[in-house]
Amino acid sequence: MQPRHLLQFECLSCQQPVRFSVFELEKLNDCVKCTSCHKKYAFQDETLRRQLRKFEALCRQIVDSEEILSHTAVGIDIGEHHVKVPYKLLLTRLNSMLDLTIGDQKVSIVFRIEPLQDLPVKEA
User: Fold this and answer.
1) Which of 26, 92, 102, 115 is most buried, with most CB under 10 Å away?
2) pLDDT value at 1 more than 50
3) 37-86 pLDDT per residue, tens
4) Whole-structure pTM over 0.70, yes or no?
5) Sign of the C-alpha dihedral, residues 19, 28, 97, 115?
6) Residue spans per domain, the chain
7) pLDDT reported for residue 42
């Protein structure tokens, strides 16, 4: 299975998307480079890397479990009323972002639901 660029954040220099997978970080010497301006971002903090791995794995599992989750619901009791909210609806509202501070700037790392769009289209 080929690793996909499942995580993305905006480059602090040029605001272009920087896409990566935490599973590629070791191969890249813990560095990710913006493909537009070539600014490098180091992910050397082991706690951060562990949290990114957990975040990516959680998001992958949610997407992989959609078939099961689409047939389940969360029950919410409000006073005497009981409401069932389908997981499918909750998943559409899922905020799959991890907010960080790099230097003095806020950065949101986003889990990309459709990384297959990164693959080049084969021409006939």
Assistant:
1) 115
2) no
3) 999 988 888 888 888 788 778 777 877 887 888 789 889 898 999 999 88
4) no
5) positive
6) 5-113
7) 85
Q: What is the pLDDT of residue 93?
A: 67
**How crowded is residue 18: how many other Cβ atoms within 10 Å of its Cβ?**
23
Measured in whole angstroms, the distance separating CA 121 from the mean position of its chain's CA atoms is 23
3-state SS, one letter per residue, for the chain: CCCCCCEEEECCCCCCEEEECHHHCCCCCCEEECCCCCCEEECCCHHHHHHHHHHHHHHHHHHHCHHHHCCCEEEEEECCEEEEEEHHHHHHCCCCEEEEEECCEEEEEEECCCHHHHCCCCCC
Type of residue numbered 124 = A
Kindly state the tokens that stand for 49: 């890397």
